[in-house]
Design goal:
By secondary structure, the protein is mainly α. It is built from 12 helices and no strands. The radius of gyration is 19 Å and the shape is globular.
Amino acid sequence: MAGLLLTSLDTTAKYLVRDHSVFLVVWARYVGQMLVVTPFARHRAGRDFWRTKHLRVQLLRSSCLVAATGCFFTGLRYLPLAEASAITFLAPILIVILSQPLLGERPTRVRWLAVAIGFAGILVLLRPGSAVFHPAALLLIGTALFNALYQLLTRKVTGDSVHTTLFYSALVGAVVTTLVLPLGTSSAPLTGFTLFLLLLMGLLAGGAHWLLTRAYLIAPASLLTPFTYAQMLWATIAGYLVFAQIPDRWSFVGMMIIVGSGVMLALVERRRARLMRRFP
C-alpha cells in the first residue's frame, strides 16, 4: 500500500511539474506530509516527540531526503515515470559502495556482485536512443545517491524514536521548501484542480510514510525490502494509464536487471540476518 501511494504521489508530481514550479510541487509534498505526520508522532511519542539526541544528523539526513525529492521531481519533467523510478532503485546498490567509507563496513563478494549487476542494468537502461538517454537522467542518479545517504544516516539516529525521526523528515522539508518557494515560477495558473492535486500530494506523502513506519514497526527490514520493488509495477501501470508511456523491450530488460539486483541483495541480507541471530 505504501508503494502504491508513493507511485500515486510520483504520478501526481509528474503531472504537475509539466506546467508548475518544481519548488511549489516539492513544497506541497512536504507541508502535507508534516500536517499528517505531526499529530501521529505526538500521539505515539507524547509531547516531547520533537526532542532528539542527534539534531545535526537528523537535519543532515532530512536535507538529503529533500535533495532527493527535488532531483526526482525535476527529472520527472523530462523522463518516463517507470524508467525514472527504476533508476532511483540504485539506492541500495550505492549503499553497499558507501557503507565502507561512511560506516566502516566491508561489503561481501555477494554485495559487490549485486552492485555490478545493478550497474549493468543502468547501462542497458541509459543506452543511446532510449527514452532515458537524456541529461535529466543524472538527476535521477543524484536521487539514488541522496536516498542512499539518507538511509545510511538513518542508522546513526537509532537512539531516537522512529516517530521523532519521521517528524524531522517532514519538518526539514517543509521549512527548506517554504524558504525557496518564492524562487519558483509557473507557466500555468493555479486552478481549483491544481490546488486539489497539491493537497492530494501532501496526503499521499503523509499516508505513505505512515504506512512505511507501521510496516517497519511490525516486520524486519530484511523481510520488507523485496516488497518495495512492487512499486516498479505500479509505476509502469501509472505511466501507461496517465501518460501513455510504456517501456520498450530493452528498457524493460534494464529495469528488471536493476530490480533483480536489489531483490538479490535484500534476500542475501535477510539470510545473513537469520544466521547472525542463530549464531551470534
